[in-house]
Each structure stands twice: as structure tokens, then as C-alpha cells.
Specification:
Blueprint lengths: L9 E2 L5 E5 L8 E2 L2 E9 L1 E6 L2 E6 L3 E5 L4 E6 L4 E8 H6 L4 H8 L4 E3 L4 H19 L3 H20 L1 E3 L10 E2 L3
Parallel strand pairs: 1-3, 6-12
Antiparallel strand pairs: 2-9, 4-7, 4-9, 5-6, 5-8, 7-10, 10-11
Helix pairs in contact: 3-4
């Protein structure tokens, strides 16, 4: 009897988390139940998400639901990026605009269409603040982080493209113009 094709996927739990650093290719896909935001400060990262290769470049901000198996399959030597994960329950409680929620819940990579230098500088400062607040122990710091993440997702919903899957707005390469 022939065995069905099995994909080996690591399962993780991230919760509310923030971190920054370099990125290296992953040996195999993983998944988690949080919404993942990736801000690329410099360099490039290439994901395999839902069977599609998606390249994020410097200045790009992408988000997706981590329950879709995903794998970082490549990155440039100079890559520096920032990640934030938000628990799915909070994402859903925020009642974000339908287009954003639908795209994310259908396993699509959503990109912020605002690739201006000013927006990128604001995002870098914001992600640094979130990392500092996340390291703090006060409930108030966590509340501020969540309010600001909520607001940032609403801004993305106002100017978003979908980089993967049926109905995507963009080619698979999510680069600045």
C-alpha cells in the first residue's frame, strides 16, 4: 500500500511576541496560530507560503496567518528584519476591515502598499517601541502595544495588496517600485 504524501511541519506557539534580527533559511516549514507581521529593514527574505514563493524586500511590511505552513527559504546576506506575532483571538476581536481579514484568514500574504520612505521610518520606530514595550512587565505596556498594532493593521487595510493566492493584486515578488 502506498503512503500518502506527508509534509513534515513544525508546530510552534508564539503568543504576543516581538523580535528583530537576521534571518536564515528554515530546514522545513512551520506553523503557529498567530498573525505574523514582518518588516524588512534591509535586504530580502523569500517565503514559501501556501506553495508560492514570495519575496519581501527592504521597506516592505507583510502579514499573514501563521497557521498556513510557511517557510523562509532564502534571505540576502545583509537582511535585517523585525517580527511581531499577535494571537489570532485578538486579531479577530479587532473587527478589522473585511478585505484584510478575509485575505489573512484565507492564507494570503498581505502587503502594505505604502512603501514610502516616511512610512518605513515610522514602522522602524514603531517596531522598536513595540519590542521595548513587550520586554516590559506592565499590563499597560502590553495594552499600548496592542492598541498600536491594531491601529497599524487598520492602516494596512486602507492601503493593502495581496501578494499570494487567487485574486492577488501583485506578482509573487513583493518589491518596491
Amino acid at each position: 500500500m502506498r503512503r500518502p504524501h506527508v509534509i513534515d511541519v513544525d508546530v510552534a506557539t508564539c503568543g504576543l511576541a516581538c523580535w528583530s534580527g537576521t534571518a536564515e533559511a528554515m530546514a522545513r516549514p512551520h506553523r503557529h496560530n498567530e498573525i505574523e507581521l514582518n518588516l524588512i529593514e534591509r535586504g530580502t527574505m523569500t517565503y514559501l507560503l501556501g506553495g508560492e514563493r514570495i519575496e519581501l524586500t527592504a521597506g516592505g511590511l507583510g502579514l499573514f496567518w501563521g497557521a498556513m505552513p510557511h517557510q523562509l527559504v532564502g534571505s540576502s546576506r545583509d537582511v535585517w528584519c523585525h517580527w511581531v506575532t499577535v494571537p489570532l483571538a485578538w486579531f479577530l476581536q479587532w473587527r478589522l476591515p473585511g478585505r484584510l481579514t478575509t485575505a489573512v484568514m484565507h492564507g494570503r500574504m498581505v502587503l502594505d502598499a505604502d512603501r514610502s520612505r516616511q512610512r518605513h521610518q515610522l514602522d522602524l520606530a514603531q517596531f522598536a517601541c513595540w519590542a521595548t514595550e513587550h520586554r516590559g512587565t506592565s499590563a499597560e505596556s502590553r495594552s499600548i502595544l496592542l492598541l498600536e498594532a491594531h491601529a497599524r493593521l487598520r492602516r494596512i487595510a486602507n492601503a493593502m495588496t495581496v501578494a499570494s493566492g487567487p485574486g492577488s493584486d501583485r506578482p509573487r515578488r513583493a518589491s518596491s517600485g
